[in-house]
């Protein structure tokens, strides 16, 4: 049994999650096996009260880290729409701002289990691994009031990926995860900007200390971040329609969303950034590792030439680094691919792994315009995802509907409790 499972059972925050799934399977079997017609199936369908409870459980499965008795009743009292609005208005729960430590562990920072234990007994574990951050993640998942923000930030972390293997300093990864939490209900353009300037992302995908071309030394800008920025964080690999389905050329082939020349152009945009300046030190062209704050601009390392961007756009020569970066991000942010690409991924992380094109189109439309002329409004996108007809309703009978649970969402309950809940709901529904 994992430490996470022990915490769940002790705190008992997830009382009926698997039971609800079991009841759905029972209902599917009864309807499929006992009902000989649509009318017969309808006669076996749950009562309105049970429908409301089932929809509340489904919403909490989609938008939190799991339902409990109190949260189910709260959703039933408020209704799904008002519950979502309440969650969207909550301030973010903040991670502990862990103390910065040097990238090279001092010899004095070790794990020492000698009694009596002190706050520094596990210095290496607490500062040079993600233990503290992982523990807080699960505490927030179980107890934080802003559950929807926690889930959306988790979804964003699976799209805008960094690696705890490469960045194992607790304070460094905490700062990155806080960006995603703070901006989960902000604007997607700001998310792209802050992620791009994050030293954790700069370290992971080689944007930090990325140099302009040098014909003497043969240096060319590193393309790693530029490629991932386009392929994974914003556009995907092929052109998409508003409903997320691939567009085809006259030969029935998919159309590339960007070219190698585009990658090279963005790689040149992403030159000249280094780690933030360490406290008490003077700026350098290559600052030492530091994950506090945004990456620092070094104009002498930035390519100031013209650069090719998407859709044959050209970033003019001579731009300041901030303007060059902002123009490139705006170029991507306005590309028609970004709305369906991002919307589909968020639906997959929150609601269902195989959303219909119509579902994607409705959410993408909210990304394009929140109803007030604003593009990329994450509140509008999340609201559209969770209140869509394909997300709501008490039971989805299509066996292909739903999503695989990520390990952080998987939990188990004692079979006796599971069986008792199934019996209760079967009796209420008069299911044999």
Description of the molecule:
The chain is an all-alpha fold and 432 residues long. It has 4 domains: 1-89 and 395-432, no CATH class; 99-151 and 164-183, no CATH class; 187-336, no CATH class; 339-393. Helix content is 49%, strand content 2%. α5 packs across α6, α10 (170-183) packs antiparallel against α11 (188-197) and α16 (338-350) crosses α17. 37% of the residues are buried. Mean pLDDT is 87; it is low at 1-44, 413-419 and 425-432.
List keywords for this structure.
about 425 residues; mainly alpha; 4 domains; two-stranded antiparallel sheet; two-stranded antiparallel ribbon; flat; disordered N terminus; disordered C terminus
Major β-sheet profile = 2 strands, antiparallel
Shape: flat
Give the count of structural domains: 4
Secondary-structure element order, as H and E?
Answer: HHHHHHHHHHHHHHEEEEHHHHH
Distance between the termini: 34 Å
Query: Over all CA atoms, what is the radius of gyration?
Result: 25 Å
Sheet with the most strands: spatial strand order: 1-2
- Oligomeric form: single chain
- Total number of helices: 19
pLDDT averaged over residues: 87
Uncertain residue segments: 1-44, 413-419, 425-432
Number of strands: 4
Q: Which structural class do you get from the secondary structure elements?
A: mainly alpha
Strand-residue fraction? under 5%
Helix content: 40-55%
Helices and strands in order, then pairings?
Elements lengths: L2 H9 L5 H18 L3 H6 L4 H16 L5 H10 L1 H9 L34 H5 L3 H13 L3 H13 L10 H14 L4 H10 L1 H6 L19 H8 L28 H10 L3 E2 L21 E2 L9 E2 L5 E2 L5 H13 L4 H13 L6 H12 L9 H10 L27 H15 L3
Helix pairs in contact: 2-19, 4-5, 5-6, 6-18, 9-10, 9-16, 10-11, 11-15, 13-14, 16-17, 16-18, 17-18
């Amino acid at each position: 049994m994992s430490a996470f499972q022990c915490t769940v059972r002790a705190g008992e925050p997830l009382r009926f999650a698997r039971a609800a799934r079991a009841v759905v399977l029972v209902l599917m079997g009864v309807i499929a096996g006992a009902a000989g017609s649509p009318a017969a199936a309808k006669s076996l369908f749950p009562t309105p009260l049970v429908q409301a409870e089932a929809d509340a459980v489904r919403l909490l499965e989609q938008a939190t880290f799991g339902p409990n008795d109190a949260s189910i009743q709260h959703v039933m009292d408020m209704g799904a729409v008002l519950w979502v609005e309440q969650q969207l208005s909550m301030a973010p729960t903040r991670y502990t701002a862990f103390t910065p430590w040097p990238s090279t562990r001092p010899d004095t920072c070790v794990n020492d289990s000698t009694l009596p234990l002190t706050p520094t007994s596990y210095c290496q574990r607490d500062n040079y691994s993600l233990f503290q951050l992982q523990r807080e993640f699960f505490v927030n998942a179980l107890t934080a009031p802003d559950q929807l923000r926690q889930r959306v930030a988790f979804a964003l972390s699976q799209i805008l990926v960094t690696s705890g293997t490469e960045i194992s300093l607790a304070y460094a990864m905490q700062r990155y995860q806080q960006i995603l939490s703070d901006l989960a209900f902000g604007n997607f353009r700001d998310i792209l900007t802050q992620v791009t300037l994050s030293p954790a992302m700069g370290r992971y995908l080689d944007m930090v200390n990325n140099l302009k071309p040098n014909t003497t030394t043969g240096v060319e800008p590193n393309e790693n971040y530029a490629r991932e920025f386009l392929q994974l964080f914003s556009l995907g690999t092929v052109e998409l329609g508003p409903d997320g389905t691939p567009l085809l050329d006259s030969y029935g082939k998919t159309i590339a969303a960007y070219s190698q020349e585009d990658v090279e152009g963005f790689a040149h945009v992403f030159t000249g950034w280094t780690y933030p300046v360490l406290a008490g030190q003077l700026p350098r062209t290559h600052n030492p590792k530091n994950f506090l704050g945004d990456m620092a601009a070094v104009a002498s390392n930035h390519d100031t030439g013209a650069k090719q961007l998407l859709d044959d756009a050209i970033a003019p020569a001579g731009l300041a680094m901030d303007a060059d970066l902002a123009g490139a991000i705006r170029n991507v942010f306005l590309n028609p691919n970004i709305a369906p690409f991002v919307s589909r991924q968020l639906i997959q992380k929150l609601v269902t792994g195989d959303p219909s094109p119509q579902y994607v189109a409705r959410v993408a439309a909210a990304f394009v315009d929140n109803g007030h002329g604003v593009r990329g409004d994450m509140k509008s996108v999340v609201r559209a995802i969770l209140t869509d007809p394909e997300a709501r309703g008490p039971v989805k009978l299509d066996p292909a509907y739903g999503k695989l649970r990520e390990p952080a969402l998987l939990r188990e309950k004692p079979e006796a409790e599971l069986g008792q809940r199934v019996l209760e709901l079967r009796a209420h529904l008069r299911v044999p």
